[in-house]
Design brief:
Elements lengths: L25 H11 L7 E5 L5 H8 L4 E6 L2 H14 L4 E4 L2 H10 L4 E6 L8 H10 L3 E12 L9 E9 L2 E8 L4
Parallel strand pairs: 1-2, 1-4, 2-3, 4-5
Antiparallel strand pairs: 5-7, 6-7
């Protein structure tokens, strides 16, 4: 797996072997960042269910101001830290459940311009991720929540609006924004 654009384009990212992670493919990552192309500069990014950290690292490579990574698996956290060190990047890495991380980030008053989420498809629904992000008020008013999920999955979320959807075989990526309140 490689960084697909920006300062670190072409650099290899290490992943943990086996089926414990399902890294976002280079093709999907490149498509996501082609959509975000003009919106990534100087953003504050949260990468939950980070795995190897590929999405957050890609954002940093393309000009994001900072990133925080959340991953519950110890081996994956070590891999994120190794990838950051190899590229000379500094970022916050939380080894915990995403709900605990969101609660702690909220308590610290943190907000994010972009939140990437690639939850385990069969265990955590996109609706649950949306609910937690909004419950803890982590998304900036004009921020984006980008969720990777099983293609064709019906997602009901009345507090966000769908801006874009892209399908890649069995995977779909949906871009959400907060609904404008009156």
């Amino acid at each position: 797996m490689r960084v697909t654009g920006g300062t670190f384009k072409g650099r290899t990212l290490n992943t943990t072997p086996g089926l414990s992670t399902r890294p976002t493919t280079d093709k999907i990552r490149q498509s996501i960042f082609n959509i975000l192309m003009n919106d990534i500069e100087e953003t504050v990014v949260l990468d939950i269910f980070a795995g190897s950290g590929a999405l957050g690292i890609e954002a940093l490579s393309r000009g994001a101001a900072s990133a925080i990574f959340v991953e519950s698996g110890h081996k994956q956290v070590e891999m994120i830290q190794e990838n950051l060190t190899t590229l000379g990047l500094k970022a916050g890495v939380f080894e915990c459940d995403y709900i605990a991380a969101c609660r702690n980030l909220s308590t610290d008053g943190r907000k994010f311009d972009m939140i990437f989420a690639d939850p385990p498809y069969e265990k955590i629904t996109p609706e649950k991720v949306i609910d937690i992000v909004l419950q803890y008020d982590l998304l900036e008013y004009d921020g984006l929540l980008i969720i990777e999920h099983k293609a064709g999955q019906e997602i009901k979320a009345d507090r966000v609006e769908i801006l874009k959807k892209r399908k890649f075989g069995q995977t779909e990526v949906t871009f959400y924004a907060r609904k404008q309140t009156e």
